[in-house]
Amino acid sequence: NIKETRLLHIAIPSINAEEIESYRRPQNQGVFRTLHLGLSIPKDSAKCRIEIGGRKQYWAEGKLFIFDDTYTHCVENDTDEIRGILFIQFERPVSGIGRIAQKIFLMGVRYSAFVKDTKAGIERWNARRQGRSA
């Protein structure tokens, strides 16, 4: 049961990465889980995949999967088609001291320059769409 979405990423069609090299997010320390929902998948879906901890996972339109992005993972799209994924990160359920540490981490993220800059950019974009200056 996902009560709150903490971070939402939307793929931008003009950004086309055929391959994202193997990486892991140790800075998250297991705070988040990542959900991928296939929106637009190349016809030859076997050529479009994510590998998580050495295990290959293939997207399908309308299907979702959840993974822990602290595991090493990489993405490949060996087609000429665009892969569209809805990418949502949400808090990993924890209790006790883990919950306290998680809240402290998230408070730091909330007030980080990255989040502040992103919010300001969204506000500017919305203002332009509504015909007013930001």
UniProtKB/TrEMBL annotation:
Residues passing through the membrane, by range: none
Gene3D superfamilies per UniProt: B-lactam Antibiotic, Isopenicillin N Synthase, Chain (2.60.120.330)
UniProt GO molecular function: dioxygenase activity
Organism domain of life: Bacteria
Entry keyword set: Dioxygenase, Oxidoreductase
Domain Aspartyl/asparaginy/proline hydroxylase: 34-93
Family recorded in the similarity comment: Belongs to the aspartyl/asparaginyl beta-hydroxylase family.
Protein name: Aspartyl/asparaginy/proline hydroxylase domain-containing protein
